[in-house]
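Protein 1 of 2
SEQ + STRUCT:
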Amino acid sequence: QDIIAFLKEMLYGYFKDLKQSSCTYAIQFKRRNTESLHRDEIINSVGNTLEQVAHKCKIEITANLKQPGMTILIEMYKSVVGLSLVKDIAQLGKFNVRTAVA
C-alpha cells in the first residue's frame, strides 16, 4: 500500500507538468531474491493506479511497450522496493539503473 501511495504522488506531479492531454506508458518489473509479491499483482495494481490518477487529471493514457512516453520501473530486491518514473526511456537506450547510479 505504501508503494501505491508513493506512486500516486509521483504520477500527480508528472501529470501536473504534462503539457499534453494524452500519454503513452509501459510498466517494467524486476524482482531478485524475493517471492513475497507476485509480478502480475504488482503490475495490475500499478496499472489500475495509473488509470485512476490519469482519469482524475483528465489525461488519456495508452499502453505502448515499444516507444512509451513514460515508463514506471519497479525493482524489488529482498524486502526493498525501488520505484521510478522515467520519461522517454527508449531514447535513453533502456538504461541500466546500476550503471546510471555508479
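Protein 2 of 2
SEQ + STRUCT:
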Amino acid sequence: MNNLIKQNVIICSWWQFCSVNWLGNFGLHAGIFLFGMTNDLIENRVAGHENCVWTPGGARGDGFGAAFMKVCPKFTPFGEIRGNVNHDCQRFGLYLDNQFPRNLVRDENGFVLD
C-alpha cells in the first residue's frame, strides 16, 4: 500500500517466455500485476507480456496469507495511475478488472478497520 512504482521498463521479447505457470495460476500474468490497488503507477513502460497492467482484486477478494479476511482488494481505492505506456502485449494494456473502489477506513498496514 502507498508504494510508488515509477519509471520502470518491463519488456519481454515474446509473451509466452514471460508467462510462466506461477503457483498454478494459469493466465494470471502481467508485466505489472497488482492485488494491492492503493499504489501509484507513474510513467512505466510495459511491452511484450501476456497482459501489460492488470489489477484482479476480485481474484483474491478476501486477501491472502497474513492479510486473509483483513483486506478487501476488490473495493480498495486506486492510487494515482498516469503516464504509463503499454503496448504489444498478447491481451490487454490496462485492465482494472472488476474493481469497485470505495473509501475504506484502513490502518497503516492497509487492513480494513470497519
